[in-house]
Amino acid sequence: MKKLLTLSMLSLTISGVRADIAPLKTAMKSHFTSISDYFRDMYAPTSWKKEFSGWSLLEEKERVYSIIDEKEDITVKDYQFILRDFFHSTKDYHVGFSFYSTEKASLPLTIRGAEGRYFIAYIDRIKLSLESFPFEVGDEVISFAGMPINEKISEIKTEIDKNVSQTDQALAEYTLTRRRASRGITVPKGPVSLEIKRFGEDKTVEHQLVWDYTEEKVNYSVVENVFKRGGLHPNTAFNNFTFEDRSLKNKLESTNMISYDVVDDAKAFEQLDNPHQIGGKNSFIPKLGTPIWEADRENSFSAYIYQNEDKKLIGYLRIPSYSADEKESKEFEEIIKKFEQTTDALVIDQVNNPGGSVFYLYSLVSMLTDKAVSTPKHKMTVLPNDVLDAKMNLPALRNVSSDEEAKKVLGTDTVGGYPVSVTFVKFMIAYYEFLINEFEEGRILTRPYHIWGVDKINPHPEVNYSKPILLLVNELDFSGGDFFPATLQDNKMVKILGTRTAGAGGYVLSFESPNMFGVERFSLTGSIAERVDGNPIENLGVTPDVEYSLTANDFQNNFEDYVNKIKEEIAKMF
Questions:
Q1: Which residue from 280, 272, 267 is spatially nearest to 349, judged by alpha carbons?
Q2: Cα R_g (the chain), whole angstroms
Q3: Are strands 291-294 and 256-258 parallel, antiparallel or unpaired?
Q4: What angle do CA 574, 463, 284 make, to 5 degrees?
Q5: C-beta neighbour count of 197 within 10 angstroms
Q6: Angle ∠(133,137,142) on CA atoms, nearest 5
Q7: DSSP readout, 465-519?
Q8: Which of 79, 245, 393, 569 is deepest in the core (most CB within 10 A)?
Q9: Cα separations in angstroms, 197 against 165, 208, 387, 558
Q10: Contact between 539 and 91 (Cβ < 8 Å)
């Protein structure tokens, strides 16, 4: 007997799209158009991305529309993955996103790779006792979830940023044991097997763990069904992403160069004792010597002084991130004051640094020299609201004639520890006048200019470090973590050791608004900075003066090769 054709089987539009799914697809394309308009108007690196990787917003829009059209029974989760891939197509660590989702899973350990091999780098012994997990840091991981671990890492790379190879590799290693649906990552649950080879042994042991899984609380199938039954018109206005208008003080303080996604991931799986945590107070670099002085545990910075083999006193100072303020700037000042009085050289450790506030970064730079320091220039997007903002603020700024008036008008004594003064206000006036002039001459992407007009970072009036500095960087230094070494290197203030930084080269604009597709927020790069040689920081990062990548022996023997290289370079500075 012939089967009866149901209405749903017959409900095709002329274009071949099922009538019940057509409104959902139309709404998705409308929503994506809204997002792409922000990139059209505000994404500063557009031309550079075309030159660097052939990226085209128009081509990406057409690709997204085509994927939506071709997917027969599209879901909200499918659309989120499409958005994820669009954001990743920019090859930009500042182009971030987050979906409303509670689903996540983690394992209480970190696995890192070197020289094509992978090692346990951290174990949370509160959750994994030695009895339940009889392995140690330095043991080698051969397979993960039934796959050779290198293949598993390659699989994870398909769901994360596709940008700088070393940085993407490191991010994939972190993602291996920490997955979040809010970041567009497929989340596992249940048991997972690891094949492990203990240090010094040839045989492997299979060990099973269970994912620490949090279920999804947001049911997006409801949205799909509402559209399918005609409960929402596809042109419903829910695409109005907003960028909060703030006071002048808050605008200064929120001029950020930070990878929000990296910070969000670190917070979602915070492990305070994990030395591989991005933005952690203590890094994986072991003590370079026996401390003869050490900062208090309550201090925001990990810092100490030790005597090396040549009887030189060496200071060590860890900068975990640039997301800090006046309090941390004052603590930094006290440490640098002590180091200037007592040490012969300084090691600054800023590995795994996600970036942060521009002016906090400037405040730290001001204490590392007794000379004015040139800052990078930025090409910046400028829109009518920026021009209006400038014209509204200029009269009050032009009336400032003293430092006290400057502080009163801006509502603060410092911006991230960087002092407010008449000079600072004059920088701001020049900056606003520049934006107005650029816009009125028809440029919505300005010529290169300094953020808020600050072309020079004046040395701190009281504290200036005058001895040699060795700066440690790696592939997980983002944004401010790019700009700090770039600024110091361009001004010939330091020797840099490590691997190339990530190359997140501008300040960040972030947008958010409730919508039917669960996009909590997204961010994009509002400027593109260039160094003294005219090259952008974006995608290129900072190449160290002395390149060093971690070795297999580092992960198995407490980073002894790395420590020896650091000591070798310190000795050369004398």
A1: 280
A2: 26
A3: unpaired
A4: 60
A5: 17
A6: 75
A7: --S-EEEEE-TT--THHHHHHHHHHHTT--EEEES------S-EEEEE---TT-E
A8: 79
A9: 27, 14, 62, 18
A10: yes
Question: 359 is written with which tokens?
Answer: 């002016």
- Relative to beta strand 469-473, strand 495-498 is parallel
- Overall pTM > 0.85: yes
Pairing of the two strands 495-498 and 546-547: parallel
Q: First vs last Cα of the chain: how many Å apart?
A: 93
Q: Which residue has the tokens 């990878």?
A: 259
Angle formed by the axes of helices 358-365 and 480-490, nearest 10°: 30
Quickly count: other Cβ atoms within 10 Å of residue 334's Cβ.
Answer: 14
Q: Which residues of 479-509 are buried (b: 16+ CB within 10 A; e: fewer)?
A: bbbbbbbbbbbbbebbbbbbbbbbbbbbbbb
Neighbouring C-beta atoms of residue 300, cutoff 10 Å: 18
Q: Are residues 230 and 238 in contact, defined by beta-carbon separation less than 8 angstroms?
A: no
Give rounded-to-5 percent helix, strand, coil for the chain: 35, 20, 45
Q: Label the pairing between strands 355-357 and 256-258.
A: antiparallel
Handedness of CA 281, 284, 288, 289 (dihedral sign): positive
Collect all residues with Cβ–Cβ distance below 8 Å to 124 and sequence separation of at least 6: 108, 109, 271, 273, 274
Contact, 314 vs 288, CB < 8 A?
yes
Q: Which residues contact 273 (CB under 8 A, 6 or more apart)?
A: 124
Sign of CA dihedral 219, 221, 222, 223: positive
Alpha carbons 128 and 124: distance in angstroms, whole number:
6
Ordered per-residue pLDDT tens for the chain, 574 residues: 333 333 333 334 434 557 789 999 999 999 999 999 999 999 999 999 999 999 999 999 999 999 999 998 999 999 999 999 999 999 999 999 999 999 999 999 999 999 999 999 999 999 999 999 999 999 999 999 999 999 999 999 999 988 999 999 999 999 999 999 999 999 999 999 999 999 999 999 999 999 999 999 999 999 899 888 876 666 654 455 555 556 777 778 778 888 888 888 888 888 879 999 999 999 999 999 999 999 999 999 999 999 999 999 999 999 999 999 999 999 999 999 999 999 999 999 999 999 999 999 999 999 999 999 999 999 999 999 999 999 999 999 999 999 999 999 999 999 999 999 999 999 999 999 999 999 999 999 999 999 999 999 999 999 999 999 999 999 999 999 999 999 999 999 999 999 999 999 999 999 987 889 999 999 999 999 999 999 999 999 999 999 999 999 999 999 999 999 999 999 999 9
CA distance 566 to 544: 13
SS3 99: strand
